[in-house]
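Attaching the record inline, Q. Sequence:
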Amino acid sequence: MRNLTRRSLLLATGGAAGWYGSGLLHADLPVPDGTARLAATTSPGMLNDASGLSATPINRHITLNQPPDDSLIAALRAEMASARAEGRAFNIGAARHSMGGQAIPRDGIAVTFDNGLIEADTAALTYRAHAGARWSQVIAALDPLGCSPKVMQSNNDFGTAATFSVNAHGWPVPFGPMGSTVRSVRMVLPSGDLVIASRTENAEIFNLAMGGYGLIGAIVDLEIEMVANTRLIPTFEVLPADGFATAFRKAVDDPAVTMAYGRLNVERASFFRQALLITYREDADQTDLPAAAGSGWMAHLASRVYRAQLGNEALKSFRWWNETVAGPRLGGGPATRNSLINEPVVTLGDRNPNRTDILHEYFVDFDRFVDFLTACRAVIPDSYQEFLNVTLRFVAPDPDSVLAFAPTPRIAAVMSFSQELTARAEDDMARMTRRLIDRVTEIGGAYYLPYRPHARLDQLTAAYPRAAEFAQAKRLLDPRLTLRNNLWDSYLGMI
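Structure, as predicted:
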């Protein structure tokens, strides 16, 4: 029961490290009369993503479930050739948990991968994964072997190639994005050529594809690094938010710390003034590790606390007390590495047709974190949005990706908002987002690209100074622009 309570605590406060793009609609505040509502549904001939706000017309949507062998390669070549002949866009997705159509080809051919093949090499500490394999399938395959993904996203719903393609990161330390743990990928280029790309072979293609949002090639499979699954014990530290960066840096530099993340108090009265740092170290007892667990009924009950914050400052205060006082007392027991990361986004979901969860993420250097807090205090409370959660994670420098968001060691701030499905709320979210991006780029930081397309083009190029280089290389590899999505149509293709 002790371990179950610890997991429930984490879920009640937004998942162990925040979650990527749940897009689940939840407990509502009243939608004012007279405001235009936005549809969050997908009709036939349309494809949507996690925001519920990206309904996009497509020509057709097909699922490919072949193993990553000649049959899948032939299918990809055929579908891309068809797209080229018809002058249509082509794009592959898995869970489509982005929030602005980054995995949707307008009027094009949308492919969903559905195959969970995992082949582990325990001697080399690597595994081969089908591009569409979900992280839940990776954990299920590695856990009996005593192994764990070296880096994955904070929830287990997403596809492995999708994680590589959005350059997503996790909360194990001291690593960079998940792509930093990928040894090589096999992909079919728009020309139909099959290539192996790594840091030593076709390195330019590898660097473009890592964080390239599927615009470079169709990934068939990946060779990814893994580590031992271990039993971990958490430590909780409450401190002033302005002192978080120093404490976090010290924790990341401690070789005994293998997982770490932080939180900030989101009560309006003390918005971003208090922080919580949670670190994990290996237990002395590493015998008889239990199988990776999933959510129990306590976790779903605890998620109600998370949702009950909406428009309720008293519940936000209770949640912070739960995180900083009750949680450390009740939830300080050990848990395996795999159990901590084996959580679906649906745990936090509640389906209400009037609201949607919207994520933001910003990356700032450690020495500019206080400036980041100042910016957030000035911008977020002034908006109309309901702020639910922020999780702070570490991202090591990424020297590979052309569209890197962490050229230096950075703190990643994953933010969760609850947005009404109204035109007023969408306009307000866009305004707030642009203000935040301006403030973040002024201090040398970046924002994350998989979310709502509210940034201006100049803001993208300020956050990603190699964007023009990426666009030029993409045009050379794909002169007919067969591989397209909303990110290309609205941003990169305009450079």
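The chain has two domains: 2-31+230-461, 112-228+465-494. The mean pLDDT is 89.

More tomorrow.
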